[in-house]
Amino acid sequence: MRSRIRAMNRRAILSGAATLLAAPGIRGVAVAAAQADPLPSWTEGGPRQKILDFVGRVAAAGGQDFVAPAERIAVFDNDGTLWAEQPIYFQAAFALDRVKALAPQHPEWKDTQPFKGVIEGDPEALAASGEKGLLQIMAATHAGMTTGVFNGLVADWLRTARHPRFDRPYDSLVYQPMLELLGYLRASGFKTFIVSSGGIEFMRVFAERAYGIPPEQVVGSSGQTRFEIESDGTPVLLKEAKVEFIDDGPGKPSGIDRFIGRRPILAFGNSDGDKQMLEWTAGGTGPRFLGLVHHTDAEREYAYDRQSHVGRLDKALDEAGERGWTVVDMREDWKAVFPPQAWSAP
Amino acid sequence: MRSRIRAMNRRAILSGAATLLAAPGIRGVAVAAAQADPLPSWTEGGPRQKILDFVGRVAAAGGQDFVAPAERIAVFDNDGTLWAEQPIYFQAAFALDRVKALAPQHPEWKDTQPFKGVIEGDPEALAASGEKGLLQIMAATHAGMTTGVFNGLVADWLRTARHPRFDRPYDSLVYQPMLELLGYLRASGFKTFIVSSGGIEFMRVFAERAYGIPPEQVVGSSGQTRFEIESDGTPVLLKEAKVEFIDDGPGKPSGIDRFIGRRPILAFGNSDGDKQMLEWTAGGTGPRFLGLVHHTDAEREYAYDRQSHVGRLDKALDEAGERGWTVVDMREDWKAVFPPQAWSAP
Q1: Taking the model in full, what pTM does it have?
Q2: Closest of B177, B188, B173 to residue B291, by C-alpha
């Protein structure tokens, strides 16, 4: 009896250790792969097998493809890679909803583009206002307030807004197979980062809840902030209407270098804006995994690639073919797309 | 005998677990404080006791000052806080050495300021060239090459250059008590970051070796980089002679927000350039620790504060007095300043 208790205790200690091994950010530890299927929503074979093979190789201590845990950096685009991006980028939906919410305080918007187009639900007028119009909308909705106020607005919106087609909160439209992949990588000693053209502050509001990715592992586009002490002595950061950094296309390798300072060994994207991130990741020595999510599932999600205005996948798809990058066919390779309806980001 | 082996094994398992607990980045774990003195180079009482009290409070599960590990963010200035900064900032010493090394390829420098002043060792001419001269030197030594080439130059310099007074490698002139503090914080579930006006790429070359701070936890000033594919197909990042971000003074709260995205609960600096970082850290709710290293030890290191051109500590010293921030008197509070002579960053 006594020895049985002792054996149990030892098992408890070891299983406690296994939990520790799976904790994010831990180093110097090889994780046993003999566990429950880490990728249950991925179809057998294909990309799933390539992922399992790659992770197994880099985590195998003593193997020729072993990569020290500190170097196991994985980067993921967000829009269209970790969550949906149709019919418009979700951050754009937030911005348009903000314009509508602010309209009563701005009677002049009724007669001024691009705001008139937003308020009247006229996408053509909005499109006609071009990049200048977009910058005006961003300035009106993403600047002129403290970072704290902005974060609160995003949190409120995520709680109340619903996706027009799926009638679910936007942050529940994350891809179940990618959640599994993120967890599997972290359990295998990887540090997972978002590298997205989306707004860094916008993403940080939900990235930790939705993906288990903490704010300090989110890289994105940003506007400048200005430090000020308010009249009551409170220090604040004011969001200014000045672009600081655009983390898209060739900006992604720069963003990775600036924020992470190491070259990733795994990169996942879904559009031409991710091409240079995958090229930069591929350019290092040692084992590499390059992946693209190909949106092929009009029934469960959306089907789009070379002609799409949102998340266009054209040149990067050609390059994937030429260089043997892994292309995930959403319809074929994913058993599930979104988490169950009842799921919501915790 | 058998039970002794069993006991040893159990001890080995437990001590392995203790090592895991001390691993950087681990979450959800309270670390028992009953261990060897974590701060042996700090004099009894004073700042040492304040640090121990603070860390004990925030790490005590169930206590009213408990802070979840994910929120245990600690930020440190680098120059003058983690390593020395006299007689000139070490990165400036690197830049001047680079000018001398490059001079044979630039015969025109013999007759052109600020390079002439550097080559002839004429600090007055150099000072007279002002900020414009400094930017010229930075452009000549920190730009026009790939990030990989630059990192190699810094690594070579750290290996070969010696500090003029101490005749030691620059990266051995780190503060022993601060190394202990960094380790103690990490063992207590903190994530430690550098937030410095120094160049982010320069610091990353040695920060992991010297401080145990990985590249992705270094925040600093930067120049822009540009992604390019070289003619042989190699992707590179070129360092351009354009300032991207100055992480100093009011820039430090912006840098913290941009890179970390959480407000720290502990901040340590040594100069007026750290004032806003400490104010921003102090401005959050819950327990806070604000520290300043005061250079009071001309014998073992340097003594300077309100009048110094390097690392001036004037307004922040006044504010520390008014607000009860912890001021470390280097002469009184540190038993040792640098690691032993034989030590070098691994």
Answers
A1: 0.88
A2: B177
